[in-house]
Write a structure and sequence with these properties.
Elements lengths: L19 H9 L2 E5 L5 E9 L2 E7 L9 E5 L1 E4 L5 E12 L3 E8 L9 E6 L6 E5 L3
Antiparallel strand pairs: 1-9, 2-3, 2-8, 3-7, 4-9, 5-6, 5-8, 6-7
């Protein structure tokens, strides 16, 4: 069904026409999921030490409030010699516009300040959720 509007009360107001992009941006203020397919890139970052890495993400639109974050099935990878499964992440700073966080993963022999990517594991079911629902 399309082109209908639910009203509170007994007075009808003019119909609001929004583009798909406007409606999507309004929804993304409350929830956003990154990930999906196998080796889908989430963000780039840098090795902190051989068991952790640092990353930043800017949300596509400012969120309604600082979101709660959850994730599953992610790996830190240099895309050459290792993929290390993320066991946890530690927010270092979060706001309505983005997050700075540290991942914890198995030792991989990486050198500090080495560039890495945060990607979905090769089973393709990984994600990172940002939830600012009411």
């Amino acid at each position: 069904m399309t082109q209908f509007q639910v009203e509170l009360g007994s007075v009808a107001t003019p119909f609001e026409h929004r583009s798909y992009g406007e409606e999507l941006a309004l929804c993304q203020r409350y929830f956003n999921r990154l990930g999906g397919g196998t080796y889908t890139g989430i963000t780039t970052g840098m090795v902190f030490n051989n068991t952790s890495a640092m990353f930043c993400i800017t949300y596509p639109v400012p969120m309604r409030a600082g979101p709660t974050i959850s994730s599953s099935g992610l790996v830190v990878s240099d895309r050459i010699s290792y993929d290390s499964a993320v066991t946890s992440f530690q927010p270092q700073g979060t706001s309505t516009t983005g997050i700075h966080f540290k991942t914890v993963h198995a030792s991989n022999g990486a050198s500090p300040r080495q560039a890495v990517v945060l990607v979905v594991q090769n089973n393709g079911t990984g994600y990172m959720d940002f939830n600012a629902e009411l």
